[in-house]
Amino acid sequence: MANIPHIVYATDDNFAEILGVSLVSLYENSKDVDDIIVYVLDSGISDENIKKLKSLPKKYSRSDLSFIKATDISKELSMNVNLDRGSLSQYARLFVSSVLPAKLDRVLYLDCDIIINKSISELWNLDIKGKTIAALKDAFSKQYRKNIDLEPDDIMFNSGVMLIDLDKWRRENIESKLLEFIRKKNGKIQQGDQGALNAILSKETFCLEPRFNSVTIFYDFSYEEMMVYRKPVDFYPREEIELAVREPSIIHYTTSFLSKRPWYEDCKHRYVAEWFKYKDISPWSDKPLWTEKKKNGIKGLYVSLCNKMPRKLMIGFSGILQAYGRPLVYR
Q: Binning pLDDT at 50, 70 and 90, where does residue 1 land?
């Protein structure tokens, strides 16, 4: 059983289609493993979408999906939890140790906005050197760390791909620590659930090679531009980022003010065709692309301004707002 990947996703109905495309890529590119067990933390998926999702493992002769009712963080804590990013369904992953089977000692958490580009087996079998999780070191400035009670040089990670040692997670009472941190911050946390995970697991993180979580920022900026824009602490060397762009094992279509995601009209991502390859063989092949809402207010003004600036000036200006302005506003 040890070599059979156990994978968990979390979604509401809005992102069920995006999850479906990710599952198709997982099954298509991981035919070398005997089976794949997938758990879906369900925050209100419609019957129609559940039926479509359930058809996928059957098509690939894999184990049925296990749908688990997602834990509602607001009800659990009896408080409004702030959404700094994504949807409330993402908080469901904080409860992996209590909702997944007790005998499970390792699980791979994946965001829905991901394409598995190479077999999942290499990542699944990775030695994480005794840490609680493995994740991508994220490009955040020191100021972000201050907002979630971290030291200036502590690791901050992207939580969209997390290989989790569930035994250690349970032993260290990570779930209780996460809930306590959210309570302490009155539900207002920079980066939402990802911020809480960083606050508790920073020192328990084994840093993945970037090719295991090739995020959009790697494509929207050159390496030098990324350093100016994000001002990250102790980031990956250029060669590792360039390899992640050339040969990604996992493509993660994260949000970016410079580009659109593949399910929106007019996406220009380097690997947009990869996403469509799997959408076209999914039960959502005839579903129209989404139309992006026009950005209004300060955000709209900012994007409009960025589009008019010379690129170098735009990156310098955006870098000041990103590295200093945003964390200051949150503080």
A: very low
